[in-house]
Design brief:
Distance between the termini: 74 Å
Shape: flat
Structural class: mainly beta
Oligomer: single chain
Number of strands: 8
Number of helices: 2
Helix content: 10-25%
Largest sheet: 8 strands, parallel
Order of helices and strands: HHEEEEEEEE
Radius of gyration: 25 Å
Number of domains: 1
């Protein structure tokens, strides 16, 4: 009997039966995959925004670390801007004009840069950076726009522009 026929007869059938009877094995995930949030909305992860914005303007900046820079400029009604930084040498800027705008920047690491610029009404923007030397920018002009960016890792860059 040729060797290939012997292999099929004596080895293939038992090997196939063993594979089909054993439970499925899970592959090891070699990457963090923090950026894969499934169907979760990033705004749900940061439930810091109130249900209804007050008629004025609210700007909050929290910093932990060294050489961090923030700036929040708001012109209009019912505006909320929040910047949270933990690390060093990070920059975060929020510019909002209009009404019913919400913007949040969260940075953890070193050397990250983030900008949010919104004009119009009923817009929301969120940038989350966890790592070093990431660059993110969201520009929105119009009404009812939502933009979000999550960067986990180092040396990433993204620009989101929405107009309506």
């Amino acid at each position: 009997m040729p060797p290939l026929t012997r292999f099929r007869t004596y080895c293939l059938a038992p090997l196939l039966g063993l594979c089909l009877s054993s439970p499925a094995l899970q592959a090891a995930d070699l990457m963090d995959n923090f950026d894969l949030a499934g169907n979760a909305d990033l705004f749900e992860l940061y439930n810091t925004f109130p249900a209804a914005l007050p008629p004025g303007q609210l700007a909050v900046a929290r910093q932990l670390g060294q050489a961090n820079q923030t700036a929040v400029t708001q012109n209009g009604q019912s505006l909320l801007g929040m910047i949270v930084q933990s690390g060093s040498a990070q920059e975060a800027y929020i510019l909002q004009q209009g009404m019913n705008q919400m913007a949040l920047i969260s940075q953890m690491g070193a050397g990250n840069q983030a900008w949010i610029a919104q004009t119009g009404a009923d817009n929301q923007a969120l940038i989350v950076q966890n790592g070093s030397y990431n660059n993110a920018r969201i520009e929105q002009s119009g009404s009812g726009l939502q933009g979000s960016v999550a960067q986990y890792g180092n040396n990433q860059s993204v620009l989101v522009r929405q107009y309506r």
